[in-house]
């Protein structure tokens, strides 16, 4: 596609439920990043995928968070047993090669945990 | 710990003025620097990238990089109300994960 796409655009869930967020990067982009942005705050790095290498999970805040990516295609971020503090916008970005390159952001998924 | 520091603002300038946004970074091995604009409720979009010391101009925007001082700036000439947004500075190349600042809020008032 022309840009990074994410789905759903909005997700409202109840505390304790699991949610799955999807990111479809720009075709040909080998690097993919997930960020969290709480209201009025900066970008919080979560996880980084580069091609078929092992992902950098150093930003995941707890073991309730996990992400997968198959090759250089779609990625899913899963949050298990959601908590109210998980409410945020989850942004996905892709870049052609790696961190020194321009990142292109998707529109984000706004997650609200009631 | 790698850090990118920005004044959170808000920076308020009148329409038509020059807005100057500043950023410092801590990782000396950073090679690439980016300015993103983020409108309220939207995702960041790239405004400028700069890799070499000096100035880089693109329309009304000029990015300035001084690696010796670890300083990056963005000048917006002839500021318009539509430029009102949060501007994020990012440094990359020291690792695979770019470091973002928390952003400076810019308000351009008519």
Question: What can be said about this structure in brief?
Answer:
Chain A has strands at residues 5-7, 10-13, 19-24, 31-37, 44-50, 65-69, 75-79, 88-95, 104-105, 109-113. By secondary structure, chain A is mostly beta strands. In chain A, a hairpin with an 8-residue loop joins strand 8 (88-95) and strand 9 (104-105).
General description of the model:
In chain A, the strands form two sheets. In chain A, strands 2, 4, 5, 8, 9 and 10 form a six-stranded mixed sheet that branches. In chain A, strands 1-3-7-6 form a four-stranded antiparallel sheet, with no helix packed on it. Chain A is built from no helices and ten strands. Chain A is mostly beta strands and 114 residues long. In chain A, 33% of the residues are buried. In chain B, strands 2, 4, 5, 9, 10 and 11 form a six-stranded mixed sheet that branches. A five-stranded antiparallel sheet of chain B has the order 1-3-8-7-6, with no helix packed on it. The radius of gyration of chain B is 13 Å and the shape is globular. At the A-B interface, strand 5 and strand 9 of A face strand 4, strand 5 and strand 9 of B.
Features:
heterodimer, A: 114 residues, mainly beta, 6-stranded mixed beta sheet, 4-stranded antiparallel beta sheet, globular, B: 110 residues, 5-stranded antiparallel beta sheet, 55% strand
Low-confidence regions of chain B: none
Helical run tally of chain B: 0
Identify the overall geometry of chain A.
globular
**Radius of gyration of chain A, taken over Cα atoms and rounded to an integer in Å:** 13 Å
Strand content of chain B: over 45%
**Which band does the percent of strand residues of chain A land in?**
over 45%
Helix content of chain B: under 10%
Tally of individual helices of chain A: 0
